[in-house]
Amino acid sequence: MNLFAPFCRRWLCALLLLAMPLAAAERLQLVTTVKPLALIAAQALGDRAEVSWLYAASQSPHQQPLRPSMLRQLAGADLVVWVGPSLEGALAATLRERPAQSVISFAELIAGPAAIERDSGGDGHNHSHDRGHDHDQRGDHTIDPHLWLQPAYAERLAAALRQRLGLPPRPLLSAAQLGEWQHRLGALQNRALLMPHRSLDYLTDFFGLRPAEALASAAGVDGGLRHQLSTLGAARYRCLLAERSEPDRRLQRFAEQLGRPLYSTDSLGAAIAPGDRGYSALIDSLVADLERCLSAR
Ligand SMILES: [Zn+2]
Asked: Which domains does the chain have, with CATH numbers?
């Protein structure tokens, strides 16, 4: 229904249209799987895109089932951004049916098409031992799917999205911001922390911190009792860092057992609104959480 129709002369309508921000129908309808990808896309594209995401940020994105509501949301998308089969395996078949131009795989953007094949199980015997590859307890060798936590990768995704819409390059994070974070974390380099799963390796690597020890792999696969025992004794932990999306009752018990404080982090940005600074705010909150946790006395 056109609300202006009863009183709208042609020239008045034209003026109204010019004055309005891009109407919803003209914006790129962009759907991401996990929320951090939506934070990157919204910050990169501003009002050129209407960004939404499929997975609730309060839930683990690992091994999420495919839901009918997701299919409906995907059907209305001009462009879908996902990580790849290592994270959202249940969506792989559905996304394969879309025109290739309407899907961006973050893993493929970073590691090339081989990353997708490897993650799909096309090559189960890839023995690359590069950093950023996860070796979980099943012996899988897949890319660590938390690609959004490597700021350099997030910049590449943002640049690819802006290029697609013909926008000039514009970084997500400023040098001043990166310098400030580096400064805050610089003195905490060799301190150990324990987490439910290996979600922050890219970020700790980026800031030169010691990688967190974890009970489960980057793919969310629990290491089991023996791994748990060896992990508990592996380091003198400064702190334990629970994740909002990965509730793990063991953390509280281990914190008491080790006599170390337990903090919490929102690694999927559940509390952060997408917008001009959403991705910056996500990294800022994670830096603050790491700083608090590793500074514990
Ligand atoms: Zn994860």
From this structure: 26-294 (3.40.50.1980)
